[in-house]
Please model this.
Amino acid sequence: MAVRIATCAACRAQYFPPRLLCARCGSEEFVTTQVRTATIEAVTQLASGNHRNDPVPVHLGSVVTEAGLRIVARLAGPISPGQQARLHMRGRAVLASPA
Ligand SMILES: [Zn+2]
Model:
């Protein structure tokens, strides 16, 4: 499933996850669009003590969509800043995998 982005119907500000009110203009009306790709902006690895139940190291990245929205995603494979990634949802988390 692609990532669902909420775009304010009044000022076009984008949000993920969706909000009840636009932080920029206060509007309550949003249009939902789907985003499937983004560019990896930065990556990091969680220290092993932060996820005792997960024996596999957790890699996180900030990704930026074509429209400029930044999202934190779990990286599903080896991927570096500047690379394109495919985005999809796993439960409530965003996964980014190499495009
Ligand atoms: Zn707005």
